Amino acid sequence: MNRSRTRRRWLAGLTAGTLAVTGLTAATGPAAHAAPPGGGQGHDQGHGHGKDPRLMRILRSMTLEDKAAQLFVLQIHGLSADTDDPAAVEANRRLYGADNAAQVMARYRPGGFIYYGENVRDPHQVAAFSNGIQRAAMAQPHRIPATIATDQEGGIVARLQPPATQSPGAMALAAGRRTADARAMARITGRELRAVGVNQNYAPDADVNVDPANPVIGVRSFGSDPALVSAMVTAQIRGYRSADVTATAKHFPGHGDTGTDSHTGVPEIDHTREEWERLDLPPFRAAIAAGVDSIMTAHIVVPSLDPSRDPATLSRPILTGILRERLGYRGVVVTDALDMDGVRAEYGDERIPVLALKAGADVLLKPPLGDDGRGVFPRQLAAVVEAVKSGELTEERIDASVYRILKLKQDRGLFRDPYADPAMVGRTVGTPAHLAAAQRAADRTTTLVRNEGGVLPLRPGRRDVLVTGWGAATTAALGAEIARRGAVATVRQTGLSPTRAQIDEAVAAARDQDLVVAVTNRAWDVKDEPGHNGPGQVNLVRALHATGTPVVVIAVRDPYDIAWFPEVPAYLATHSYTAEALRSAAAVLFGELNPRGRLPVTVPVRDDPGTALYPFGHGLSYRR
User: Fold this and answer.
1) Domains in the chain and their CATH numbers?
2) pTM of the entire structure?
């Protein structure tokens, strides 16, 4: 079926009228267009009028090169600011010609750094890393503290792992329908990030996921209903603000309806202007009305918003015409990572930062390695400087972005004290109170989608249970939870793409069991080609069902999997595979928890995307 026509049927048949379904309202009207006071947005951008005198003194004392460097947030390798680990040093030298973060700061004075999983070992190490970066920053002539950012969305995207508290992901929280939980988990996440020296989180995700086959967003979104997404995004922004961490609504103008991953290709959103305003815009409008300090761009092409077909990150009609002028947004605009193919396909790496700044961006995130295996950041930095010298960019335009960045750092209190307090790490990160709050939130998210024949809840007593499917840690954790309740649990992990031999072994093991619990992770991704899961998970579930042994499927990522095996008697959606989500699922299996989650998306019929197999808001309960 033609993808554009399929999408139109999906949009028309499944999302029309959803604003009324949720009983929630997105921000609309004049207040949604105006930048609110506070939140780092209320300062005037013109010629120093109404600006902070201290920040203006810093800005006027900076060289053009210093200003350009302040626009960049860089990836760094290693576990400390002064690492001498050979592998990290080699990687940093390829990127920047310097050994570590401290040397990069001394040489270039960038605006900040972003942490990835490789930078994280434990909370005390991260706090020491952050403090090392800030010491290096404060040793520079202008004493400008560093932005230290990460992606701690919760659920499947979390750089800080246990003992840090693991929040349910966006779609899981939306299944619980409690904005109070969304706000509380953002506050907890923010407090723990700030305790280890991270002052900006690239969250929450404000995309409205209306494409079940979206390869890059999915459960990172709060769902397919614009009003539900708007309410949850607003709650999380307020939670992060209460923890004094910068929230970042992403990915403007909306990455929720694409079959292409912008890391590896150039997605095109074929929404009409009316569809975009109805579906994609409301969460960003709500975020602006809530005073969000930062908005991240998307490397997506939206012809209805910019016929030039430039990706939004490089589109002046989108970033300036819509975001700045129409919506009145006055905060910081950060690009998505500049090493992604979605922004690199059309223009050379040295042109991209100049075009992003001309479009209206402020922060340039994660310059890539070039084709020669060397980092392009030095060349991108030089390109910005040269663009000003040549007149393509004005220095006033650079000043406007640098001032926004400095003002945001001041609003976070970084000029006053940029350092993490080592004594607070143990008192803040992964505390019993935080962990209990995460478990309570997760307990409200587990969604019972199907329960034919009363398979669930399981009755007390000894039984033999096979736990199979995706994830060594996931199946082992579920097996342990089931065994703890008196069952004899056999665990047989089969991975993302089970082979025929693995399927046959699982089927043989299932024949003498009382119950099979099968774990799936994006089983719907059945394309049998590189980069996709293939049909193995679907084949596994169908083969297990054919044995006659009762099968309970637990989808631990996207809830759409059931469309590929609608005949299974019982199906739970957890929307994530955190330890808390798995404990909640086990408690629901045994009736210790009454399932309370409701689908935050519509699950369509496999071959008929305009027809709902399970509608938005569906969720079963044991007790009425």
Assistant:
1) 61-84+92-427 (3.20.20.300), 446-614 (3.40.50.1700)
2) 0.91
